[in-house]
Design a protein that fits this description.
heterotetramer, A alpha/beta (334), B alpha/beta (518), C mainly alpha (358), D mainly alpha (328), A: 334 residues, alpha/beta, Rossmann fold, 2 domains, eight-stranded mixed sheet, four-stranded parallel sheet, 14 strands, 39% helix, disordered N terminus, B: 518 residues, 3 domains, six-stranded mixed sheet, 18 helices, 24 strands, disordered C terminus
């Protein structure tokens, strides 16, 4: 049913990209003659952000002569992903793209896939480097850390007491972002104090409870950085329930649909992410290139309608953070 | 029969079975039973285990549908789809051990399924006050001093039966069937139950009960019906009761007179010595010594503490004080695992719960007494050796079975008991405690078991026998201790031993102290 | 009459049901296994790509089987162990931390891990026996405790990247033993060995005998001189040890540990045990049945995934099979009281012998 | 049996230790007070309101579980049922604008239908409850997944949010709390004072005896599982209104099945059936919510939260076992 909401309108509105499409002729080009099978395996199938990737990927698959499959575990478990990988290996897929629940646990299975001649493209959350051919990083970690901090401190003030509400203690990408947040704070806003760190287990309801608890236990907190889709929703809901809208600000990493109401009601002033639909398209484009063997470890390429990208040591940075606020959020539907 | 009977049979409370048959699969349990139950009369059903008595009662009470035949109530045929349908028609079965609703109050257990309600602001609600008042009234009517607010789990079995009687009356049931009510009761409790029965009878209720105890039956019955192998072989009315005839009808052959045992096998060597044993609760200061080859009986009322004494000696129940010596060595406080290894075994009274594992095979039960003696290969039990032990046991103990791997539950009570005997006797014990060794065992197997006990004594085993049947103790024992309320009150030996003397020994102890716990 | 004299075996040596622990249920499961493997082999491309790949599929589900073997013992006693998932996680995490933080040899750490699992099982038994708490509740409580401990022990960056010799347990084959052995995953060899061991243990060892006895009737077992507390403690300890073994195999398979890695094991392992024919009330059932049911459910899941069904559809099917099989079993079980059972009884069994005195 | 015959009659009147409600109120108040001393923020009206609100969904589900356990059953499927109801109601509202009263109907219908399925499997096919609901746990979880097709509920219409958070007609008490009070009162009345509830307890005490007393045991079983399903789904609806979200793992991810069993037992309901404590269940859920919130106020590291839960179960059930031990 969500498919009905699918729209590429948002994707059409190009962003300012770090690399401008000037050197298209030099880059790797896909060869779409042969039909290939590409699977996209998200952390779990029940999250809208990943559905947004799928949305973009489906559109791109048509153009690139790809049999596309979106499949994954129901809960965010590495074991579930490995089960899916194993079945994809048996079904002889050409490319597996995935965002990992755990970088290390997935590695043996993905290495087996690579041994079987399957290309592996990681996106969003990386796996161990030896277990994938390429990694598409959403945004650079420092950039995202900065965006997270700015979107709260701008409103809460440079000497605010803030809290962090994350997913789980060992979530790789969240920990990278939290690390980036801390170093940016130390450098730019040394007076900001982090008074609590809680975990919502990527569950909206547990995040809500954790958010409520933070605000009740630390009434002087005026900002919550919640770098997780469920966490930011929980934090925002907690602020709203406690009637602290306008007094406490939160930000995170969520798809616009999930936080639209909070952005409109002012609980969330700004929240950074990136264009998930577009990222899904890029994932498929890179998958095609990888399958064709057309992409080198250090390379550049231009994806039509997406822009030009640089591959550095197998890593491709997708974009600068895209910051949603009340003025632009309605342009994005995912 | 005839006109008079026809007229009677239309009376309210006249309940007749006509040609009742019941089969389970290919097995015919009841083969056409016709029996009349009449108002104001007590009809007793006697018969060996497996004769079909309980099945007949279950059919009469609507718990089991008959395969064929008709039930007539006051002349009209009735079909009873369930126990509650039977209750609705005034027929009530008091089970031997009433099924408890342990967490509910006495009053509620009496009304379960038919709680009185009254209207209230929130709809119909249970009328607790009315329920309690009516329950109290029903118990008072039978002069039963039981607090209706007690949780049912605190009732004794006798009290549970008493409550069941009151319950039957409460539901307006005037045809009351008692399934072997007396066997778990002490004799005082039996007296109390009988007084209730007489009161009900005088009140015009239709009564029937099952019993094995001849004395009771002769005392309370107006009519005695004897069942054998699913057939009603005899119905006798009061003046013409004849003990010998009843017994021979039950077993289908004339019964030899119960002999007193010939000569003692007792030797000098003391095998088991108990001194000043107490558990701090049920018995105190019990002492006796048991010699090899001797058979010592423990007589007493049910609940006198005999089983507890045995269990404490055996080590499954802790002792508070006293000493137990086995072959001279002090073994007080050891668990039964250690006792078995030292040659003391115990055949418990409750076979299904403690004595055997009914779903397991004969072989597994036989060897379970002491797995150590089964030969092992690579740490595993040798199937061949197990089969050898089991086959020998089945032969020596005359177990009738289809094969050694037959589950025990498929055997009759007597054969199950023989397997339990085999389980322990093949471990080569020096002392055996036999608690109600013939409970739930039919007459034929009973005699086999007596012979086995004699043989064990001849072999030099020391035996402690607990039995509630005086005849049994007389038949088996060299010496008898009488237990009353956890204390040894008398000792009988030699020529003093007779059924009357045994009964007298503990009943006289009972008399002075007045009423035994109700 | 001398009962102690050794008697010659009865001429008609009776068959012993437990010597060959295979009955109707096990045969039905085996038929189902054949149908599942053949069905997916024919209908799902990629399911059968040579014997090595077929056997290789077992690597993906045998940790569940290891848990099921241990859990079988507990369920045979009439108990249950809800803590197996948490035990698997906690002991694997602790073993991995011993290796990574304290430099303990990985194999020594693994051995310690299994020992820790056994200890956690003993702790379960202590809660059940000493505090007198129902196994269901006791192990529910301890699973929360062990789970917390696993998270605490794992820290923010749980260890990963084990030595190759260790990860071979999860993903390697017996290749070094010869070309044919190269087809057999080490996991499968481990499981097969343990399956035989457990089967023999339950069917023919003194421990298995008393275990079954305790399961059918704890009272009768106690009155037979069996120290039931020790039997239960052993069962829970073995269950814990097997859970931690499964956790270690998972660690090896994933080349990493996580504090929640064992969570998925519990419900599937219970399903395997129950579908294998072990009665939740204790006593009844065989390890052979559990082994076959592990293979049935494992191959079914792999086949479904390869055929492109989602994880959840597969889980649904597992649930449906569990319900249908137990319903069918109830209808036909000798101990049941259903109508079909009575019909079945009359068809199948002659009149049970009754001991009537002539 | 001779032991039973002569066991001295216990005092039938419950002592204070048997008044589980009072004990729970006391320990809840004591822990709240203690935390309040360390961190006064805990005792604000606002915070206590959320402590209460946070316990509502679990309480509602656990009341159904209480009924089932009182009948000597167990229902593991409450967790996926709660999730299914939250997902179906939430998605219908989010995408089709299903009105709130419609969602109530949908939730109750799902609960009744699937709860009845549990009941039929237990009562008619004679499958042990733990196995039945283990099987339907997978089935219902799968239904949630199939229905949602991997999407999630992340915003609900204002009417839902108002229902989940505000009080009706401007009352200061949030609607979920009122719903809980209503359900609690209904369960309390049913178990304590209606023929149906007493029949449930009779079945839990001794199903054979209940049958012989003329109770339709199979029908009662089916009704109780249906009620449990109903309450689980009501809990799911309240959940989606309160949190504004539902995912495929709602219910199962938080192990509501285990939590509901835990609070029912901590509340004083016997795992062996036959005795239930409706008020105790609600208070135990409130206690759990208090403790979990208190841990945050005391700055206990989050990883130990579930250990606290485990200890609470063992300690509370231990207290209950000691007194039940007298029962043969």
């Amino acid at each position: 049913m969500n498919r009905r909401r699918r729209s590429l309108g948002g994707a059409a509105l190009a962003l300012a990209l770090s690399v401008s499409p000037l050197f298209a002729a030099d880059g790797a080009m896909p060869d779409t003659a042969k039909r290939i099978k590409v699977a996209m395996v998200p952390k779990l199938v029940g999250l809208s952000v990943f559905k947004a990737n799928e949305q973009g990927a489906i559109a791109e698959a048509k153009d690139l002569n790809i049999d596309f499959l979106y499949t994954g575990p129901v809960t965010a478990s590495a074991q579930g992903q490995v089960d899916v990988f194993n079945s994809l290996i048996a079904r002889k897929f050409d490319v597996i793209t995935t965002t990992s629940n755990n970088p290390t646990q997935l590695a043996p299975s993905l290495e087996r896939a690579m041994k079987a001649g399957i290309k592996v493209v990681a996106y969003d959350s990386d796996v161990a480097p030896q277990a994938r051919d390429f990694f598409i990083q959403n945004t650079s970690y420092p950039a995202f850390g900065k965006a997270l901090v700015e979107s709260v401190i701008k409103y809460a003030g440079p000497d605010a007491k803030i809290a962090i509400l994350s997913s789980t203690p060992d979530a790789t990408i969240q920990n990278e972002w939290i690390g980036a947040v801390k170093s940016y704070l130390a450098a730019t806003y040394p007076k900001v104090q982090i008074v609590a760190t809680e975990y919502g287990q990527s569950s909206p309801s547990q995040s809500l409870t954790a958010g409520l608890n933070i605000l009740q236990a630390h009434p002087d907190v005026t900002g919550i950085i919640a770098p997780d889709g469920a966490a930011v929703v929980g934090a925002a809901a907690a602020i709203e329930k406690l009637g602290k809208t306008g007094k406490v600000f939160t930000t995170g990493a969520s798809n616009p649909d999930a936080v639209r109401q909070y952005v409109k009601s002012g609980v969330i002033k700004e929240t950074p992410l990136w264009d998930e639909v577009k990222e899904g398209r890029l994932v498929l484009y890179v998958a095609r290139l990888a399958a064709d063997g057309a992409l080198k470890d250090n390379d550049t390429f231009t994806a039509p309608g997406l822009g030009t990208y640089e591959v550095k040591d197998k890593v491709i940075v997708f974009s600068e953070p895209l910051v949603f606020d009340a003025s632009n959020i309605d342009q994005y539907k995912f | 029969m005839s006109a008079q009977r026809d007229a009677d049979s239309a009376m309210p409370g006249f309940y007749a079975a006509q040609g009742i048959r019941k089969s389970y699969g290919a097995i015919q349990v009841l083969k056409g039973i016709s029996l009349d139950l009449k108002p104001g009369r007590m009809v007793t059903i006697m018969g060996e285990n497996g004769a079909g008595k309980s099945t007949l009662f279950k059919i009469l009470a609507g718990q089991v549908p008959p395969t064929g035949g008709t039930l007539r109530l006051a002349g009209a045929p009735v079909a009873l789809a369930s126990p509650s349908a039977a209750h609705a028609r005034g027929i009530y079965l008091v089970p031997q051990e009433p099924a408890l609703l342990p967490e509910l109050s006495v009053a509620e257990t009496m009304f379960v399924g038919a709680l009185p309600t009254r209207g209230g602001p929130l709809g119909r609600r249970v009328d607790w006050a009315a329920m309690r008042a009516r329950a109290r009234a029903a118990l008072d009517a039978l002069e039963l001093p039981i607090d209706v607010d007690r949780p049912a789990r605190t009732l004794s079995i006798a009290q549970q039966q008493q409550v069941e009687c009151a319950k039957a009356l409460l539901r307006g049931c005037r045809i009351i069937l008692f399934d072997e009510p007396t066997s778990p009761l002490t004799s005082h409790e039996v007296e109390h139950l009988f007084s209730i029965m007489r009161r009900l009878k005088a009140d015009g209720c239709t009564l029937s009960f099952i019993s094995h105890r001849m004395d009771e039956v002769l005392e309370i019955s107006d009519e005695i019906a004897v069942l054998r192998d699913g057939v009603l072989v005899d119905v006798v009315a009061r003046p013409s009761f004849d003990r010998a005839r009843l017994l021979s009808r039950m077993v289908g052959r004339p019964l030899k007179a119960v002999p007193r045992r010939a000569a003692s096998n007792a030797r000098d060597e003391v095998a088991l010595e108990v001194r000043g044993l107490s558990d701090g609760l049920r018995f105190a200061d019990v002492g006796f010594s048991l010699r090899r080859g001797e058979v010592l009986g423990l007589a007493g009322l049910v609940g006198a503490g005999r089983t507890e004494i045995a269990e404490t000696v055996f080590g499954v129940r802790p002792a508070a004080a006293g000493e137990v010596r086995l072959g001279g060595a002090v073994v007080t406080g050891l668990d039964c695992h250690a006792m078995i290894r030292r040659g003391l075994v115990y055949v418990p009274e409750d076979r299904a719960r403690h004595g055997a594992v009914l779903p397991m095979t004969i072989t597994e039960n036989v060897t379970s007494g002491l797995l150590d003696r089964v030969r092992r290969r690579a740490g595993l039990l040798s199937a061949r050796d197990e089969a050898r032990i089991s086959a020998a046991a089945v032969r020596d103990f005359r177990v009738r079975c289809a094969g050694l791997d037959q589950p025990l539950r498929e055997l009759s009570g007597g054969n199950q008991q023989k397997v339990v005997f085999a389980k322990w006797m093949t471990t080569g014990p020096r002392v055996a405690i036999l608690d109600e060794p013939t409970r739930g065992v039919d007459v034929g197997a009973k005699e086999d078991i007596y012979e086995m006990i004699d043989a064990m004594a001849r072999d030099g085993m020391a035996l402690l026998v607990i039995s509630s049947e005086s005849e049994e103790l007389v038949r088996l024992c060299d010496r008898i201790l009488s237990i009353y309320e956890g204390r040894v009150v008398a000792e009988l030996s030699g020529a003093d031993i007779s059924p009357a003397a045994v009964a007298r020994s503990y009943l006289t102890a009972a008399a002075p102290s007045g009423g035994v716990a109700a | 009459m001398d009962m102690r004299a050794p008697a010659a075996a009865d001429a008609a040596t009776p068959r012993d049901g437990r010597r060959l622990p295979v009955g109707g249920w096990e045969l039905a499961l085996t038929a189902l296994l054949v149908a599942v493997v053949a069905g997916f082999g024919a209908a799902a491309p990629g399911f059968y790509a040579g014997p090595a790949s077929l056997l290789g599929l077992t690597e993906n589900f045998l940790p569940f089987g290891l848990v099921a073997l241990g859990l079988s013992l507990v369920i045979l006693t009439g108990g249950i162990d809800l803590s197996v998932g948490a035990v698997a996680s906690l002991s694997a995490v602790l073993a991995a931390q011993l290796w990574s933080r304290f430099g303990v040899d990985i194999w020594a750490a693994s051995a310690l891990g299994v020992a820790i699992g056994a200890l956690l099982g003993l702790l379960n038994a202590a809660v059940i026996l000493r505090l007198g708490i129902e196994p269901l509740i006791a192990t529910l409580g301890t699973s929360f405790l062990y789970g917390s401990a696993a998270v605490a022990a794992a820290g923010a960056a749980p260890p990963s990247g084990f030595p190759a010799s260790f990860t071979a347990v999860g993903t390697g084959t017996l290749g070094s033993l010869g070309p044919l052995a190269g087809l057999v995953p080490i996991q499968l060899a481990l499981f097969a060995a343990l399956a035989v061991l457990f089967s023999a243990l339950v069917a023919r060892s003194p421990f298995g005998r008393v275990l079954v006895m305790v399961g059918y009737s704890p009272d009768a077992a106690r009155y037979s001189g069996i120290r039931t507390g020790r039997v239960l403690a052993t069962a829970y300890a073995v269950s814990g040890a097997m859970a931690s073994l499964a956790g270690l195999v998972l660690a090896s398979y994933y080349d990493a540990v996580r504090p929640d890695m064992g969570d998925v094991l519990l419900l599937t392992a219970i399903t395997m045990v129950v579908l294998g024919g072990i009665s939740i009330f204790g006593g009844e059932g065989t390890v052979a049945g559990v082994v076959v049911s592990v293979l049935v459910l494992g191959f079914l899941r792999q086949g479904m995934l390869i055929a492109g069904f989602s994880d959840m559809v597969t889980t649904m099917l597992t649930g449906a099979i569990l319900l249908a099989s137990i319903a069918a079993k109830n209808l036909f079980n000798r101990r049941g009281t259903g109508l079909a059972n009575q019909i079945w009884a009359t068809i199948r069994r002659p009149e049970p012998p009754r001991a009537n005195p002539n | 049996m001779s032991a039973a015959a002569a066991r001295p009659a216990a005092d039938p009147r419950p002592g204070w230790r048997d008044r589980r409600e009072l004990v729970l109120v006391a320990v809840t108040a004591a822990s709240a007070g203690a935390v309040g001393i360390v961190n006064p923020g805990f005792l604000t009206v606002e915070n206590l309101r959320f402590v209460a609100l946070n316990s509502v969904v679990l309480s509602i589900v656990a009341l159904g579980q209480t009924l089932v356990i009182a009948m000597r059953g167990i229902d593991l499927s409450v967790a996926p049922l709660m999730g299914l109801s939250a997902m179906v109601c939430g998605l219908l509202a989010q995408t089709h604008g299903l009105p709130l009263w419609g969602a109530v109907g949908v939730a109750l219908a799902i609960g009744l239908a699937l709860g009845t399925l549990n009941g039929v499997l237990v009562a008619a096919l004679n499958i042990p409850p733990i196995i039945t609901t283990l099987g339907t746990y997978s089935l219902f979880g799968g239904l949630t997944f199939l229905y949602s097709d991997g999407t999630q509920v992340d915003q609900v219409p204002p009417a839902y949010a108002a229902f989940g958070n505000a009080g009706p007609l401007g009352l200061p008490v949030p609607t979920p709390v009122l719903v809980l009070l209503l359900v609690t009162a209904a369960c309390w009345f049913a178990l304590g004072h209606s023929r149906f509830g007493r029949a449930v307890l009779a079945v839990g005490n001794n199903a054979a005896a209940a049958y012989n007393a003329g109770l339709r045991v199979a029908v009662i079983r089916i009704q109780v599982y249906a009620l449990s399903g109903l309450l689980a789904c009501l809990g799911g609806l309240v959940f989606v209104c309160y949190t504004g979200s539902a995912t495929v793992t709602t219910g199962t991810g938080d192990h509501v099945e285990l939590q509901s069993i835990a609070v029912a037992l901590v509340g004083g309901t016997l795992i062996a059936g036959g005795r239930a404590n409706v008020l105790g269940t609600v208070l135990a859920s409130l206690f759990l919510s208090t403790v979990l919130t208190a841990l945050v106020f005391l700055q206990v590291p989050p990883i130990w939260y579930s250990a606290g839960e485990g200890l609470m179960i063992l300690v509370a059930v231990r207290g209950g076992t000691r007194r039940a031990a007298g029962r043969a």
